[in-house]
Design brief:
The structure holds 2 protein chains of 2 kinds.
Chain A: E1 2-3, E2 6-7, H1 13-26, H2 36-47, H3 50-83, H4 85-100, H5 107-114, H6 118-142, H7 146-154, H8 159-170, H9 172-197, H10 201-211, H11 215-247
Helix pairs in contact in A: 2-11, 3-4, 3-6, 3-9, 3-10, 4-6, 5-6, 6-9, 9-10, 9-11, 10-11
Chain B: E1 20-31, E2 34-45, E3 49-53, H1 60-68, E4 75-80, E5 83-84, E6 92-95, H2 107-117, H3 122-135, H4 151-164, E7 169-173, H5 181-197, E8 201-205, H6 209-215, E9 218-222, E10 229-233, H7 243-246, H8 250-263
The structure holds adenosine-5'-triphosphate and magnesium ion.
Protein name (chain A): ABC transporter permease subunit
Keywords (chain A): Cell membrane, Membrane, Transmembrane, Transmembrane helix, Transport
Main location (chain A): membrane
Chain lengths: ~250, ~270
């Protein structure tokens, strides 16, 4: 974007929104919105506290475990569904149901089944992320050029070799697209899980802050979470762009 | 003209009985209600190039894929070197009409891919691949990716990959369709050399009558669906006259005319 002939760097509109936030905060309109500067100062002080670091570690752990399970289970399942009619018929209805289901409602059930701890949060995260990864991997495999499949057969590829040397790579652009959306959903899953279970990670922290009306702390942690989710999603979008050179030419 | 090509008998001018590398017996293929091939029998002599020529949609690709073992015939049998075909095998290699290259792999890896699938060690298969990349005139492009090549160059990568596995039978589905006329002529000459130097059996699908007559030892003309062999033509006289002279040869021009006469009835 250009203003008065000067090129503005990307996302410079954020500065404008930050200024509005600051003004609203200083006007004292509501205790709910403290000035941005106060939030940033709090953010800086909060970052070093053991409570925050513990929450961060726990969240990161739950998040990565959830993403790991969704990717490790989701991609092979999706590829299998794309390659095998029977498995596809069996699983596709369930994948579609869970993809659109309000998973938040399931969290209390998970708590009963798996306890009030980390396990339930990891499973919640996985449940949020896995379905779109399965569905995209399946779609990726279904669009593989038929000649590539025939080529693999013709040159004597074993099923495993065809899987690892052809199908996976041919479906990779769609798979990565699914992983990116899955990861964004995993961020939601890990936070919702923690909020509902609320004795570990940021759930506990939010509970603490809101009970004590520490709004600046609340916003500070929120900014950190938003920033992390955005960074992860941008990184995956970058990976996607790097392989898009062949996506159009398969 | 007394040298009208012999029909249906696979006897060379010298009188030797030629062995068949591939023979199809009474092949029928139905796609649901569509009858693509009906009772098609055809022999492919060893070490020779046979072209399949016929109107679009008559089942040439279908026949090639049945020979490759990629498609199952509804009835009938394919034999390669006397053994019945049940699936793809290392004795046959396929050159795909749409190249079927791995877009994420370099030219070198693509050409070596058939050997990679057979478990040949990396240094060994890359040495073989490099040789065939040179043979098809792509030296210097080993590190490039398919999307960086022109259509004709990609087609040559597909050809080199099929040559690199050193199969006895090469199945080529319109392998020169994506190149301009000049390159096409160059490829046809290369192909003639290849038939002479590599002791392989070539089965070649084309839409071009001139191309078929130019490169083939035997031309099978297929009828429209359901497809059978209507005629087998074996150009005999001009093969020895050298690549440059063939196109001016009387027999060559005669055969081209004859094929056109029998095919034109199928063109509205
Ligand atoms: N998978 C399929 N399902 C149904 N019908 C098919 C299928 N593949 C081919 N056919 C039909 O079989 C017939 C022969 O097809 P084929 O591709 O073998 O023709 P072709 O001779 O190679 O044509 P062209 O010269 O245009 O490439 C066509 O009429 C086509 O409609
Ligand atoms: Mg065809």
């Amino acid at each position: 974007m250009r203003v008065f002939g000067i090129r503005l760097p990307a996302m410079s509109s954020l500065i404008l929104w930050g200024m509005i936030w600051e003004i609203v905060g200083r006007s004292g309109l509501t205790f709910f919105v403290p000035p941005l500067s106060e939030v940033l100062v709090t953010l800086y002080s909060v970052l070093g506290t053991p409570a925050f670091q513990k929450a961060l570690m726990e969240t990161a752990y739950a998040f990565f475990m959830g993403v790991l399970f969704s990717v490790a289970i989701g991609i092979p399942t999706g590829i299998l569904m794309g390659k095998n009619r029977l498995i596809d018929e069996l699983l596709l209805p369930w994948v579609n149901i869970f993809l659109s289901a309000p998973l938040t409602a399931l969290v209390p059930v998970l708590m009963v089944l798996f306890g009030f701890g980390m396990k339930s949060i990891v499973i919640t995260t996985t449940l949020f992320a896995i379905w779109i990864i399965i569905l995209n991997s399946r779609a990726g495999v279904l669009q593989i050029n038929r000649s590539l499949v025939e080529m693999a057969r013709c040159f004597g590829a074993s099923p495993l070799a065809a899987f690892t040397k052809v199908y996976f790579w041919a479906a990779l652009p769609e798979i990565l697209g699914g992983v990116r959306i899955g990861v964004i959903r995993a961020v939601k899953g890990v936070i919702i899980g923690q909020l509902l279970i609320s004795i570990v990670g940021f759930g506990a922290l939010f509970e603490l802050y809101s009970n004590n009306f520490l709004m600046a702390h609340f916003w500070a942690v929120l900014i950190v979470l938003f920033g992390m989710a955005f960074t992860i999603s941008e990184f995956l979008a970058y990976l996607e762009r790097r392989i898009s050179y062949y996506a159009a030419k398969r | 003209m007394d040298m009208s090509p012999t029909r249906k008998n696979v006897v060379e001018a010298s009188g030797f009985k030629v062995e068949n590398a591939v023979s199809t017996r009474k092949i029928s293929k139905n796609y649901g209600p569509v009858e693509a091939l009906r009772n098609l029998s055809l022999d492919f002599p060893k070490g020779q190039l046979t072209s399949l020529l016929g109107p679009s949609g008559c089942g040439k690709t279908t026949l090639l894929k049945i020979i490759a073992g990629l498609l199952e015939p509804t009835s009938g049998e394919v034999e390669v070197n006397g053994r019945a075909v049940t699936g793809p095998g290392p004795d046959r290699a396929f050159v795909f009409q749409d190249f079927a290259l791995l877009p994420w792999a370099s030219v070198l890896r693509n050409v070596a891919f058939g050997l990679e699938l057979r478990g040949v060690a990396k240094s060994e298969r890359e040495a073989v691949a490099e040789k065939y990349i040179r043979d098809v005139g792509l030296a210097g492009f080993e590190k490039n990716y398919p999307h960086e090549l022109s259509g004709g160059m990609r087609q040559r990568v597909g050809l080199a990959r099929a040559l690199a596995v050193d199969s006895e039978v090469l199945l080529m589905d319109e392998p020169f369709s994506a190149v301009d006329e000049q390159t096409r002529r160059k490829f046809q000459e290369d192909l003639l050399n290849l038939v002479q130097t590599e002791n392989k059996t070539f089965i070649f699908v084309t839409h071009s009558i001139e191309e078929a007559v130019y490169v083939s030892d035997q031309i099978a003309i297929l009828l429209p669906r359901p497809s059978r062999v209507s005629e087998i033509i074996r150009p005999a006289g001009f093969r020895s006259k050298g690549a440059e002279n063939i196109r001016r040869d009387l027999e060559y021009l005669d055969i081209v005319d004859r094929i056109w006469a029998s095919l034109r009835t199928y063109v509205e």
